[in-house]
From TrEMBL:
The name this protein goes by in its record: DUF309 domain-containing protein
Disordered: annotated segments: 1-44
Comp. bias regions, Basic and acidic residues: 9-31
Organism of derivation: Williamsia serinedens
């Protein structure tokens, strides 16, 4: 008979599991007694307009916080409906693709950047004002090429989510 291993998981008021372990800059969990980093920006439950989400995510990408940018974009994706929802999902996938590249997981980075590129391309007609679909497609293609022969961490050029002046 196998003994069942039970672990305590932090849960919110609705009973959804949360992981309160400290994290590093790239979102990797650290031991419970480690000193993690406090990511910049508001909490995960923040409600932002499209323009606010894009601006905050871009600032996070520009300052080396791609995983936090992914969380902001994911929060907006999950609060959005209709055809625009797929674009937000694609933007979140691009940001987490950057995270995987920096973590040293080039195959995960390629997979997520591909999915993100395809999602924003498919939803280009529904993209929020200011999203630079063509520029992001070009960035994704160049990043996918850069990730072909990589075996370890790679810092990709920062994607630019919006058109200049938007």
């Amino acid at each position: 008979m196998n003994a069942r291993r039970t672990t305590h998981r932090d849960r919110d008021e609705e009973g959804r599991a949360h992981n309160a372990r400290p994290r590093d800059r790239l979102g990797r969990p650290l031991p419970r007694d480690a000193a993690g980093v406090t990511p910049p920006g508001p909490g995960d439950d923040v409600v932002l307009s499209a323009a606010e989400s894009l601006a905050l995510a871009q600032d996070l990408l520009d300052t080396g916080w791609p995983f936090r940018a992914h969380e902001i974009l994911e929060a907006t994706w999950k609060q959005t409906s209709g055809d625009e929802r797929g674009v937000w999902k694609g933007l979140a996938q691009l940001a987490v693709g950057v995270t995987h590249a920096e973590r040293g997981n080039p195959s995960g980075a390629r997979r997520l950047i591909e999915r993100g590129r395809d999602a924003i391309t498919a939803g280009s007609d529904a993209a929020p004002d200011g999203v630079d679909v063509d520029g992001l497609r070009t960035w994704a293609d160049e990043s996918l090429h850069a990730l072909l022969d990589v075996d370890g961490p790679l810092v990709l050029p920062t994607p630019h989510l919006g058109r200049m002046g938007s």
